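Fig. S4 source data, part A: sequence.
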Amino acid sequence: MIYVSEIAKLLEGVTPLSANELVELIAPAPSSEMGDWAFPCFRLSKAMKKSPGLIASDLTRELKTNKPEFIDKIEAVNGYVNFYLNRRAVVESVLTAVKERGEGYGGSDAGAGKTILIDYSSPNIAKHFHVGHLGTTFIGHALYNILRFLGYHVVGINYLGDWGTQFGKLITAYKHWGSKAEIEARGIDGLMDLYVKFHKEAESTPGLNDEARAWMLKMQDGDDESLNIWKWFVDLSLIEYERVYKRLNITFDSYRGESYYNDKLDAVVSELREKGLLTLSEGASIVDLSAYNMPPCLILRGDGGSLYPTRDIATALERKQTYDFYKSLYVTGLEQNLHFAQWMKIVEMMGYDWAKDMIHIPYGLVVFEEGKKISSRGGNVIKMEDLLDKAAAKTLEIINEKNPNLADKETVAEQVGIGAVIFNQLYNNRIKDVQFSWDKMLNFDGETGPYAQYTSARANSVLKKTPAAVYEMETDYSLLCDNYSYEVIKLLDLFPERIAEAGEKYEPFIISRYLVSLAQAFNKFYHNNIILSDDLTLSAARVNLTIRVRDILKRGLGLLGIAAPEEM
């Protein structure tokens, strides 16, 4: 990437564009046969009153007269100026940078001194941690890792759904049909059964809903019995959640759920009223958003009860005061776009200019081959834990078929199975629906997590077989200028840019796609070049490249929250 800046400086002297504008336009050439970097001349056509092809030819002729040593050749092709770099210089500079920066290669200090909050995962207490949480959990965790790698102080917040009318229903169900011993033994399974039973019984006994509302009012009024039962439900739920998070190697910096903000809601309502933003509508208090082409936002029900927007505004105000964030990200489903647009606009209307720093990070649905729909009320959910168990079991079947003597294969199956689920979620633009197919997801030859993990393990296998004498030799960079080696090195050079782009766009899939490209390029290198041979000088050069690929694959997978097994 150093060379891109140098090429931009060259072009700055012969075009009307600034170096910064040129850096944005210069892109990797489609293949090594077409050079290393390409500059498109189409944007210059109107200003220079020439065709892109003629501009490219003129620029090429002018640049050739004072070509620096790091450029071997400059060509004009179909409106592009293609730059062919001196391969040996590129190979040495890239491999040296990757080695010297070590685990910091790809990261930066761009975020130094800036705090970013990420609100993600956030399951509802007393309900199973299910596949509906795949997107928020995996996207949020990947962004947490990526932004930390870019130097930001990141605070991961698990905003637990630990308050609301469902607790009145659960307490009612527990009082009618529950057993403390059974709930202690069964945990969330027992709570879910009670929740489902409540809804079935309420269809024929409407009075149960009145009981549920009464229990919820007791909770709001600080009644000890109701709050003790509620706290017990919360603690039982966290046991399951922590077990799943441990398997996923995910931790949070804050577990402040909805209940934490109960005593902060009145202040929000008072401020909205004082600033003239509240309007009465059929007994309810709303904020009119018609000026912004949005429906009104309900702040208080007719009975005075608060709603999600009220709570989210209170949460935002408290988080700004506590963390003075640079950005505050909310990773939730696409279907919540309007909700976030409404309450964030209200924060802006309240006069807080930092409202622009709150960003909703939406994502699409998970679509299963079985066509199964998620419904907590009907008890029809696919538990996250069951999904992870199935992924590990299916992977173990594949390992037993392909490599039955693999050491510690149960651990590897767990890492690969879970990695496959995460990678599948993060492989496309987050706004797209995720197709969930076991066969595609666990394919060791496709564009999958197992493929990237296997490539890393393959590189590691080569390194384990490498004689000690090879590691002690100096690298002859001229031996890595063939097309297969050079394609890998160019991708290593792109790693920092891809990390920065993923952080800037809040898109982990940029890293996923990059890792597949790197794995594919390395496997071509592996199949077309003998890495370990009698020629120790050649072996040393290729081993150097193999080490760097192994390290970057492991680092990239780690940013996505995926382990890189040493053997597979």
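Fig. S4 source data, part B ends here. Residues 224-248 form the longest helix (25 residues).
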